[in-house]
Amino acid sequence: MYVAVKGGEKAIANAHALLAKAGRGDERQPRIEHAQVAGQLAVLVARVMNEGSLYDPELAARAILQAQGDALEAITLVRSYRTTLPRFGYTEPVDTAALPPQRRVSATFKDIPGGQQLGATFDYTHRLFSDPAEATTGFADNESATAHEDEMPRVADLLGVEALMEPERPADFDDPEPADLTREPTVFPMSRAERLQALARGDEGFLLSLGYSTQRGFGRTHPFAGEIRVGEVEVEFDAPELGFAVPLGRIEVTECQMINQFTGNADTPAQFTRGYGLVFGRAERKAMSMSLVDRTLRADEFGERRVAPAQDEEFVIMHADNVEATGFVEHLKLPHYVDFQAELGLVRRLNKERMAKADAAAGTSSEEVEALA
Amino acid sequence: MSTGAGILPSYNIGYLDEQTKRMIRRALLKAVAIPGFQVPFASREVPMPRGWGTGGVQVTAAIIGEDDTLKVIDQGADDTTNAVSIRAFFAKVAGAKTTTRTDEATVIQTRHRIPETELTEGQTMVYQVPIPEPLRFLEPRETETRRMHALEDYGLIYVKLYEDIAKYGHIATTYAYPVIVNGRYLMDPSPTPSFDNPKLHQSPALHLYGAGREKRIYAVPPYTDVVSLGFEDHPFEPQKFSQPCAVCGSTGVYLDEIITDDAGGVMYACSDTDHCERTVAAASARRESEIDNDELSDELDEIEEVHV
Fold first, then answer.
1. Does a structural domain hold residue A311?
2. pLDDT in tens, B25-61
């Protein structure tokens, strides 16, 4: 009987072998190569890179394969590798106005300098099953399907000229070092930069639902999608010993500028305020959700009453990390014999005491009956 | 960082990078300097899920050296799957020597138990902590609980214990039973049963607590006062077991209840498997050989003392 807790070593080895077998599927089918995943499942790869906090499509593709398609497991793999890498410093801020957008849309203006560019989007597709080979034909010779080469100013900057938009950098902005919550202890309240980092690596589904909740009235911010753009941007690293910035390469990003109506208060005139989202790869849903939540979390800045979950920094940030969330939820699978034994003892004791009390009460009343007789 | 086609990424010895180890060691030093105080640290991911001992793993990775021998237990047992997995992890990434014997280990990583064998000077216990904040379920906000610790504002926890007494006639906390360390900080001894609380008081070993997900490290240095909360008329009472272990016969140890059939049959056996195995081995050795070997009988006496 005591063997119940024995044999852990062998059990683990067997479980790993079974897992590998389950992940292999039908052996008559070829194995999927990671290059295929990186090329053909790029949206999933982007999610793993974002929540894994590491821009490396090949490694993310490997993680997805090793995790048998479990996104959170893949994210955990990437994070557990990323965290062991030394940090050399910060890159220069990326210039998203200079990125030639592969896609760029604004919901606030019909016509914007540089024009609207639909790009690669699921937006107007009919969600009907179709032959993927058919979908790409008739496309290659279509000239307008190639990316726009002109620079396009950011829509939020256009409004800024009229002072209708809160400035991106307030008057007293002194460009502090961006914090890094993967290297420094988390302390609340956070700076906006730290919060944006936490949101960028936060769970897409969690942020989506929180963003949605603000649209339904739980911390409403009156948002408009000022601009969403997707494209490749150059990353430059300023090495102190060189004295100039060295280009490291190009990364694909999605940026969302949410514009939010604000009626003003005693200190601030009526103007539009901003929510911001920036993520790796094609990850529009995430960028939009992030910008909604970023704006609601700025409640204190605008003297707004904090009444909804999406406005509560500690609640949002502490629960947005899906690596932490899934780990702790799933840890309930681990044995808890010892604590359960302790609770078992307590429940038995409480029941025994209750029955003893009930018996005592019953005893008294029967004596009383006898006394009366 | 670049991963060319077909080349797999590699990891540092001991998994964590050296900067991280130094950061954790600094947090540990601060924790030892302020017994029971929760030191925030920039917790890293480790290659097992959050909530499965990632805090303990980081602490162990930061302190383990070439001379160390590691023991890992979960629920008191060396052979539970997660203990096996963590022990195998350190054997793989740090080339660590491992053991299941409490008396041979220099570092003992644990979840939910303190071994029955008395700890000695020079040994380090590393606890895996899920929720480091003893006030968390009374006050969910970290900003609030930090303030309460700073002001030594611990009224709330006494009210909770008082409410237990008013409702049940006694304190109804059986594990993660709160303690005051060195007369100052309220501390959660991690979800060890209250049975193990007295082992912390004036313990000759160093006790380190790592909460990975919650990003906190705290410590009880050797020979520190650790007092379980109670009232003059309702003092702290650890769990007691009336029956001995069905396998080795030990009394005064923590027992697991093992269901033996579907008709309510149960047996009780040591939760500490190393203690149980060594007691059984000592008893059978005693039976098999004449006790003319002084050395052996000394050893047996020693083991006997531990569980009597």
1. yes
2. 999 999 999 999 999 999 999 998 888 899 999 999 9
Give the phi and the psi of residue B71 in degrees, each rounded to 5: -120, 140
B215 Cβ neighbours under 8 A, 6+ residues apart? A185, A186, B40, B41, B42, B43
Judged against a pLDDT cut of 70, whether residue B83 lies above it is answered with yes
In degrees and rounded to multiples of 5, residue A151 shows phi and psi of -75, 145
A61 and chain B: CB distance < 8 Å anywhere? no
Q: Partners of B128 in the beta sheet?
A: B210
Is residue A50 within 8 A of residue A286, CB to CB? The reply is yes
A153 and A261 assigned to the same domain: yes
Q: Can the peptide bond before residue A189 be classed as cis, meaning omega within 30 degrees of 0?
A: yes
CB contact under 8 Å between A82 and B45, yes or no, is yes
Enclosing H/E stretch for A294: helix A284-296
**CA closest to A321 among chain B residues:** B213
What one-letter code names the amino acid at A256? C
Task: Indicate if A289 and A316 belong to the same structural domain.
Answer: yes
Nearest CA distance, A359 vs chain B (angstrom): 17
H/E run at residue B250: none
Beta carbons of B267 and A345 less than 8 Å apart: no
Listed in sequence order, the residues at least 6 apart from B270 whose beta carbon sits closer than 8 Å to its beta carbon are B76, B116, B245, B247, B248, B250, B253, B254, B255, B256, B276, B279
In B66-154, which residue ranges form alpha helices assigned H by DSSP?
A: 81-93, 142-150
Which one of B50, B216, B248, B253 makes the best mutation probe of the A interface by having the most chain A beta carbons within 10 Å?
A: B50
A173 CB-contact burial (10 Å; exposed 0-12 / middle 13-18 / buried 19+):
exposed
In which domain, by residue range, is A265 found? 96-122+147-328
Same domain, yes or no: A107 and A251: yes
Same domain for A157 and A31?
no
3-class secondary structure, A104: strand
Window 275-304 of B: residues touching A by CB (8 A cutoff) are none
Please give the Cα distance from B262 to B86 (Å, whole number): 34
Are residues A195 and A215 both part of a single domain?
yes
**Whether pLDDT at A155 is above 60:** yes
- Residue B76, burial from CB neighbour count under 10 angstroms (0-12, 13-18, 19+): buried
* H/E stretch holding A105: strand A101-105
pLDDT score of B245 more than 90: yes
pLDDT band at B3 (very low <50, low <70, confident <90, very high): very low
Nearest neighbour of A86 by CB, restricted to B19, B41, B247: B19
Q: What is the pLDDT of residue A239?
A: 84
Over residues A85-99, the pLDDT tens digits come to: 988 888 999 988 887
Tell me what ipTM this predicted complex has: 0.73
Query: Does A127 map to a domain?
Result: no
pLDDT in tens, B98-144: 999 999 999 999 999 999 999 999 999 999 999 999 999 899 899 99
Residues A262 and A227 in one domain: yes
B87 contacts B93 by C-beta, under 8 angstroms: no
| A103, A32: one domain | no
Reported as a single tens digit per residue, the pLDDT across A101-154 is: 889 998 888 778 878 888 999 888 888 888 877 776 655 555 454 555 666 778
Q: Where are the beta strands (DSSP E) in A180-316?
A: 223-238, 245-262, 271-280
Which residues of B99-203 form beta strands (DSSP E)? 107-111, 124-128, 179-181, 185-187
Number of domains in chain A: 3
| In a shared domain, residues A267 and A294 | yes
